[in-house]
Amino acid sequence: MSDLDALLLDRIAGCLAPANGHGLGVGVSGGSDSLALLVLLAEWGKANDRQVFAATVDHGLRSESAAEAAHVAHVCADLGVAHETLIWKDRPRSGNLSDLARRARYRLLADWAVRNAVGCVALAHTLDDQAETFLMRLGREAGVDGLAAMAGQWRQDGTLFCRPALKVTRADLRAVLTAQNISWVEDPTNIDPTYDRARARMVLQHLEDLGITARGLSRVSEHLAEVRTSLYWYVFLAAQTHVRFLSGDVFIARKGFRTLTRDVARRLLQQVLMWISGAEYAPRGRAVDLMLEAIRGGTGMTLHGCVMSVMDDELHFTREEKAIAGLRVAARHVWDDRWRLDGPEHTDCEIAALGQAGLAQCPDWRATGLPELSLRATPAVWKGGHVVAAPLAGLSNGWHATLIRDEQQFYADVLAH
Questions:
Q1: 380 bridge partner residues
Q2: Which helix (DSSP H) or strand (DSSP E) does residue 154 occupy?
Q3: Mean pLDDT of each 10-residue bin along the chain, 417 residues long
Q4: What domain range includes position 270?
């Protein structure tokens, strides 16, 4: 191992997320960054008696993708690393393919990690990626959250992902491969000016004449990440002071909400909407600004699959009935990714929204403390057109409802930023 390899490996290993003694996974596309990370982590695995696994996601969007995956498999065989190619089989015919492919990639890697008892999956985003992303988001007039550095680690679909090479340049990683005579794949989109990232890469070369470097932009994004962390700490404190939870709904004290700065108030609303809806991403800033204006004007609003109502003393947030109107699952299965209902009878039963028709079969619903609007969007056990149980609406019949994403999960999500 060269001195450069040892230096890079030491820097990368220090950023690896703990894997609790399980194997370490690496997502490898065949490009220089991920191949070099694979080479370095294969060395790390041998030195630390840890098994390293590699996976390549073949999206099937380019004719060369199968050959590129085969090249990665060949390199892995030479390194003694187990490799698997993951095929994106449920590719849609339309939509934002770039975004859909990215989501599919993480989902496939997460499933692969679970199957192979991989404790953490490392991805090869570099210092250069950080700087390019900063420029791209700057062009979209992003705020603190958009311009802040990429997360070093995060959990998605039950799997821990990490980016241990964020402080390493692309040039350093390519030097590792060149020294070992390992070829890599050049993605044609990296130099295609129709793609934002390719244009950002070109612009970054010219900015160096002004002293604006990839390393400098990466540092700026790290400073903004510290600001983002501070903002979400204030969101956490505000939630503990002004927020209460009831049967999956959220209530925010209006008087306390008015004391919050706009940045904190906006982020608090985003966290509430994501927690209730289960959406992966927060609503766009302009939409949240409209909700802030609605609150100021004392009017309700629907956003992100949730309904916000302005009450005398509180803001009330609940699931939108329309968003889950057609959702039906077998009894005792998780419903809306947030509720599980358990009880004695389940033959020929389904879980679906209570709705207006179901609420009419719950004589004691007013005693629950939840308004009709909320209860219509809560889960109930149905058998044909008859409500067997609706625990949140006061009709239990031996059934009880468990909130999967509970109050503690809300606070954990806030502090995860």
A1: 352
A2: strand 153-156
A3: 70 69 87 95 90 94 90 96 93 78 93 92 95 94 92 88 93 94 86 87 90 95 96 98 97 98 97 95 92 97 98 97 95 94 88 96 94 96 94 96 94 92
A4: 234-320+408-415
pLDDT at 2: 65
Helix (H) or strand (E) run with residue 388 in it: strand 386-389
Instruction: Please report whether residue 116 resides in a domain.
Output: yes
Question: Number of folded domains in the chain?
Answer: 3
Q: Where are the alpha helices (DSSP H) in 351-395?
A: 355-359, 372-375
Cα–Cα distance for residue pair 127/270, rounded to 1 Å: 29
- Judge if 238 and 354 occupy the same domain: no
Say what the pLDDT of residue 292 is. 98
Per-residue pLDDT, 330: 93
In this structure, what CATH number is given to the domain that contains residue 239? 3.30.465.60
3-state DSSP of 192-231: CCCCHHHHHHHHHHHHHHHCCCHHHHHHHHHHHHHHHHHH
Question: Rounded to whole angstroms, how far apart are CA atoms 73 and 75?
Answer: 6
Q: Which residue has the tokens 């679909």?
A: 157
- Return the structure tokens found at 148: 């802040």
Residue 170 to residue 126: CA distance in whole angstroms: 6
Phi, psi of 400 (to 5 degrees): -140, 150
Spatial neighbors of 367 by CB under 8 A, at least 6 apart, are: 394
Residues 142 and 278 in one domain: no
Do 85 and 109 lie in a common domain? yes
- How far apart, in Å, are the Cα atoms of 126 and each of 87, 171, 281? 25, 10, 23
